[in-house]
Design a protein that fits this description.
This protein is an alpha/beta fold and 316 residues long. Helix content is 25%, strand content 19%. The chain has a twelve-stranded mixed beta sheet, with helices on one face. A hairpin with a 2-residue loop joins strand 7 and strand 8.
Length: 316
């Protein structure tokens, strides 16, 4: 289905839980999220129903996200259900990777085709600092497990943070030489006021090009500008929600774990589908698509996102 600005909406990001085993400083408040009552959250059946009606409206790709999707007990069954929905051609998952080492093969068998793993540093202490207590080793084991499980694509997502990991751009990019994976650098989005990051933390992804003068440009792939180190196995992607927004070609819809359809990441607009039957869900989803804003407002250190939720409660 097309939105009011002629954009074909084909991609749904489905958050299966608000909960997470990490507390990344730019994503979640230090104290974590308020525990919600079970009845407030979408059931597995409601998630499948929502994806079914989304597919009837033209959604072809679903990305499962969170919070951390791998802390969800029934994650394999959710993945299996969604991958069997008629019309859905691609099911992907975004994870912090720390629980992946024992689950990668099962996720592949449950229908996950591509996997994105978030990792912002290759330094143990810095990893623990940015995630407020996570262990780098767990994420690295998760990456190895994903590479061995035979997904169509493994991508690493790195949020670029000035003064924190801009000195690791080269080391992270070099991973694409040794391993069959892509690395994507993403601009930090101003979601939280207490992240502890000042204005200097927001650096444009163009910094990556300055640090890697040898890269070969490959053009665009969806929201990412693609490039490659000479002779590397994988690509490098730059995603720039702040310095060069991609609203004109946005094909996304988001569904939160508590059943709110968000037509735009940085808009407070939400459409509640919790407790609805399929046909009612479909009407709400149509309303959400038609209400998708043309673009979001200014974003900067001073102009924070109007999303009305932190990223862990949206799904990124
Ligand atoms: N827990 C999973 C993970 O970390 O990959 C999935 C959920 S997480 C909210 C999805 C993505 O959002 C991650 O790649 C994370 O780095 C990114 N993210 C969270 N907060 C962000 C922010 N303020 N700016 C840019 N990216 C952010
Ligand atoms: Fe958890 Fe992912 Fe947010 Fe980090 S980015 S706190 S891993 S949801």
């Amino acid at each position: 289905m097309k939105d009011s600005f002629g954009r074909e909406i084909t991609y749904l990001r489905l958050s299966v839980t608000d909960l997470c085993n990490l507390r990344c400083r730019y994503c979640m408040p230090k104290e974590g999220v308020c525990l919600r009552r079970h009845e407030e959250m979408l059931t597995e059946e409601e998630m499948t129903d929502a994806v079914t009606v989304a597919a009837e409206l033209g959604i072809r790709k679903v990305r499962i996200t969170g919070g951390e999707p791998l802390v969800k007990k029934n994650i394999l069954s959710i993945c299996k259900n969604i991958s069997h929905v008629p019309g859905i051609e691609e099911v992907c998952l975004t994870t912090n990777g720390t629980l992946l080492s024992n689950m990668a093969a099962d996720l592949k068998a449950a229908g996950i085709q591509r996997i994105n793993i978030s990792i912002d540093t290759l330094n143990e202490e810095k990893y623990s600092e940015i995630t407020r207590g996570g262990r780098l080793k767990d994420a690295l084991c998760g990456i190895e497990a994903a590479l061995n499980a035979g997904f169509e694509k493994v991508k690493l997502n790195t949020v670029l943070i000035g003064g924190f990991n801009d000195d690791e751009i080269k080391a992270l990019a070099e991973l694409t030489r040794e391993k069959d994976l892509d690395v994507r650098f993403i601009e930090l989005m101003p979601m939280l006021s207490d992240s502890g990051f000042g204005e200097d933390a927001f650096i444009p992804v163009g910094t990556v090009k300055e640090k890697l003068p040898e890269v070969i440009f490959l053009g665009r792939d969806g929201v990412a500008e693609l490039m490659k180190l000479p002779g590397a196995k994988g690509n490098i992607g730059l995603i720039s929600p702040i310095s060069c927004r991609f609203c004109a070609s946005c094909n996304r819809l988001r569904l939160t774990a508590d059943g709110k359809i968000k037509p735009c990441l940085h808009s407070p607009l939400e459409y509640d589908i919790k407790g609805l039957k399929r046909e009612q869900m479909k009407d709400k989803m149509k309303q959400a698509i038609l209400a998708k804003p043309e673009s979001y407002g200014k974003l900067s250190y001073a102009d924070r996102s109007c999303a009305g939720r932190t990223m862990d409660r949206i799904g990124g």
